[in-house]
Amino acid sequence: MQYDPIKRKLGVVFNQSPSLRKLFYKLLDILLLRSWHIRKEIKIWEKTASGKQNILDAGSGFGQYDYYLASRNKEWNIVGLDVKQEQITDCNNFFQKIGLQNVNFEYGDLTRLDDSNKYDMVLCVDVMEHIEEDELVFRNFYKALRNNGMLLISTPSDKGGSDVHHHDHDHGGDSQSFIDEHVRDGYGIDEISNKMKNAGFNRTKVYYQYGKPGKIAWKLSMKFPIILLNKSYFFFILLPFYYMLTFPFVLILNWFDLKIKHNTGTGLVALAWKD
User: Where are the domains of the chain?
Assistant: First the structure.
C-alpha cells in the first residue's frame, strides 16, 4: 500500500483554491494525531523562544507544519526542505499567494545538510523512518542547531508503528502495510535516545504517542480510508460522509491520547537539546 498516489490525488482536489488548501491543513491538524503532539511541543517551546527564531522543517511535504509555524508568529523564519521538487514548487506558490513571507521551501537532502549553528529549532515529522543513514542525519541536525536549540521528531515506534505484519510480508501475503515506504519498522525509545546522544545531544526526552486511543483513532481516520482509496478512487465521493460519522470519535480519542501517558504506543515523539 502506498501513500504517494493518495497524496497526489488529494493535492489536486485541495489545490483548487487557497481556501481549500487551508481547509486541508485544518483537517490534517484535526485528524492526524501526530499533529496534536507536535503542536503541543511547539507551544511549550515558544514559551522560552522570544523574538526572531530560525526554524528548519526537515521534510516539509505538503507544508502543513510550515503553515502552522508561519501563521503563529511572523517573527519566525521557516525553511522547509524536501527532496520532491513538485512539492517544493507547489508550497512556494501557495505561500506566496496567501502572503506568508516568513517561510521558504528549498530542495534539500538531509544526509547532505551542511548548515552550522543556524537554527533554533529543527522539526522532523515522519521522515527518519525513510532514511537509512539516520545517524548521519542526527549529526547534521546537531551541527545545524544553535546552542540551546531543540530537535523535535515524530516517527513510528518499533511497537508496530509501520503497521507491519512480518509473517504476511515475508510470505507474500496482503499485509495492508505501509512498510514499502519505510526503511525500518520503527524506533525503540532507547535506540533513538542513544542515537541522538551519540550525535552530540546531551539532553533528550522520548515518549510514546498513538497509545490505545490513538491506535483506534488512526484506524478510523487514516488506515481504513487509505485502504479503500487504494482499491478505488471512487471512495473519494464517500469520504465526506464517512468522516461525518467518525469525526466525533476521532476527536475524543485524539484528545485522550494527548493527555494520557502511554506505557507503549505505535509512535514516538523525540526531543533533544543542544546545550
Answer: 4-163+179-210+266-273
